[in-house]
Amino acid sequence: xxxxxxxxxxxxxTSGEVDDKWIASSCSLCYSSCSIKAHRVNGTVVKIxxxxxxxxxxxxxxxxxxxxxxxxxxxxxxxKPMKRTNPEKGKGIDPMWEEISWDExxxxxxxxxxxxxxxxxxxxxxxxxxxxxxxxxxxxxxxxAFGTPNASAAGGGLHCGNGAHLISGIMHSSWSIVPxxxxxxxxxxxxxxxxxxxxHASCSNMTMAADARARGMKMVVVDPFANxxxxxxxxxxxIRVGTDAGxxxxxxxxxxxxxxxxxVPYLKAKTxxxxxxxxxxxxxxxxxxxxxxxxxxxxxEACTFDATDSxxxxxxxxxxxxxxxxxxxxxxxxxxxxxxxxxRGEEITTIPAENIRRIATEFAEEARIGSTIVIDGVTVxxxxxxxxxxxxxxxxxxxxxxxxxxxxxxxxxxxxxxxGGCLGFNPACDGYPExxxxxxxxxxxxxxxxxxxxxxxxxxxxxxNDPAPPERVGLQNLFPMAMGSVFxxxxxxxEMWQKFDFDYRPEFLLNLGANQIMSVGNSDAVEASLKKxxxxxxxxxxxxxxxxxxxxxxxxCGYLETTDSRSNFPFIxxxxxxxxxxxxxxxxxxxxxxxxxxxFADVLQELADRIGIxxxxxxxxxxxxxxxxxxxxKLDRKYTFAEIGDHDLKDKFGPDKGLEYFKEHGLVKWxxxxxxxxxxxFTDVRxxxxxxxxxxxxxxxxxxxxxKGLDIPQEYYSPLPDWLPCPSHECHHENFDFxxxxxxxxxxxxxxxxxxxWLDEAAQLDPxxxxxxxxxxxxxxxxxxxxxxxxxxxxxxxxxEGRARLTETIHPEGLGxxxxxxxxxxxxxxxxxxxxxxxxxxxxxxxHSSPNNLTVDLCAKxxxxxxxxxxxxxxx
Amino acid sequence: MNKILGPDESAxxxxxxxxxxGGNTSKVGAPPxxxxxMDAADITLNVALFGYLSTKADKDRLTLNVPGxxxxxxxxxxxxxxxxxxxxxxxxxxxxxxIECCRIFxxxxxxxxxxxxxxxxxxxxxxxxxxxxxxxxxx
Lengths: 876, 139
Prior knowledge:
By secondary structure, chain A is an alpha/beta fold. Chain A has 27 helices and 35 strands.
């Protein structure tokens, strides 16, 4: 009890009862959901640590997780339902809250939802946050039960996910990618911080990345800013913002056309590079089976891809099949890559040509193409190199190709899901040994291409749906590669809805912990979109800037007041890749909810009951959790979320391992096997390095969008990846000298933690968290010094202000702003006024979004103006 | 071409997991189902529609008869016919494939194989539940 404050132990001794318990649960200060142990003494949480029993976090806990205690006991937490009394809504306008009873709040909301569902369920828009992954299923279950197709994940989904998850899903059957830290010797990071700040499996990866670096793994970090990953790198490669594809394709050209070092058997057996491509950019297909064809170089004839041994498939040559001239996809790839000389790479990225060639050569040589390794008695391919990318690369108009170009490097050398290579997060599992549940593995579609075995939602990343006339307010039916959509809050959303003859408008916003006015883009655009809703209900723990738009506020439970059968959905979301344990931890209530807080999932169940859709919601949970047999929910019974969790756990782990078992033990784990971790060598699937469907997708999209006056640029639908410029690259206004970008700060999690007092204190000590990073040499040339108050303005007149911080660790053209700061909510005093609100520089419209996956471009060409000289240079 | 630095020891591993599967007449994917013994008599289906489907169809329960050898895909088609083209359209994409976000439970068992036979418990009516799972993204 060393860490128990004396006053608590005194109180306990006085009462004669000591409640002194360590409780296994899961963190929620970011979406990694690392396993924790919370120390509770007499009903008060006094300390939080990592849980060493768990593979999720591996016993480590970052500063954010440790500081969770401050978010829990923040006196500004919401404790009672409230309704607004000020009918006027807007940014910074006081809602004039009035506390109301739960019954009044529930009656009001249920009445409106019932009427809305009878009118048109599509008018309900559900907004959730990605930060707390336990919030994944209840909103989607409610959404499916209610019958609306409209939901989004505010900035979290839109900024980080569209390209990154699409490519990781199609190419690795996984939500994201990471180096195999246990065996990797050479990792290239493109705008990613895996293992060095935030992201999936955060604390696990920090441990594993540190061990890998200590072992000697060389880490090359390609990033405009050397902050978290860059600061720990072997080599930092400063790059012009938004040009990752230019570098990756130049490196690929070195591998293929200069060094001629690539994994031929892998390309033949595991990709569609042998598939024959006609002059129309499409596969040559067998007339009888419609299967893609290859050239059998032994039989010297064409056949379907599954009719000959992969070893006999040609990667080179030109052939005639059924009167059509055709070539293997690899020929087209090689020719395409020739257009990306290292000199062109330098022109695009500013990275010297010789550096590009050197890094590519190191990557190729370190790959040890052709080698194998024996792990636990199993021989697997050994490729100790990985190229990974995440938000920094994908957060641009060229999102899809940036990600695909980087991942291409892995596939060219056969370093995909093998020992030492680039791994997905556990895409194949033989199942929990005692029940056989949780078994999944990638499998092929009729073209032989990989379909994921496990995914976040019901529709996986591949095969790509056909474009269809849009019904969802984000237009994702028309843009089937999009997950999040700019049109949730864009300045041109009404124009788009009119173009496509929408016969309804979203009227009711159900907000579940998201703060979209801060997290999506410039607040003027988001404010306008919020004001269009006739009614807004917000479940939240603080009265955030977005919650200030709500008509009714429900005070939600925090993570220390919540019981959930899973800390992630799917359970592998933040389970570290590589060898180790499968691990399923739960989240459980450490303390009872304070005030009148209620768990949002229970409130949704209550609302469903009052609306009359309990059977729909229970059927929805049955489907989402894939509950079977006696573990299925009865349709007409109202359950608590904890009871549903009990069903979920018994369904997966057997009748003796329900919620009570997990409350006592915290988790279940079992060892991974090499054939699960390095599944690709044992699974008969291929991945598309040539995206043949893109031509069809483009034509079908144009057929729908063209008559409506929306131009769909074809270059974004090419089967082979290209570097395509961001709007910022095409801004040539005088004095707009910098490419502004934001990055995930190590101290904070987006906007979620800004109200946390300990993290705020840490951020104030950090030179960058709340300031604007500018290259020291360039800054001095412009007469700037650290501490100067500056204005940063984009070409559309949107501005932010903050203090400059000059540093040598940023690209000369770069301007870096951390996290999602600059709060203005009146009930968040710790967060208010701290840091810089980058997203006000992000334009939200079709022009600034990816024409194939609707990702918002997150960089802006900006002009810097000095407003006020530093007042105390010594402090900087 | 292909100037790798050492012997190619991994080639056999790659090739062995990518064996040919029987040429241009083979089917990719699940092995063909064994035909079970069938009762040719019609089966009564108690169908429950949930969420989006019930709001679109403006009903949440219906009773249908299907042939005794009906498969999941047949049932989906019959339900689509009974509920109208708007509902039928929600079950499949433009290519005529069953959409992944549709979940169908037969006697409480989730079926994702469209060629599975409908086999009611105890020779009584078969309980069918259908729901479309709505989701688009995460972060």
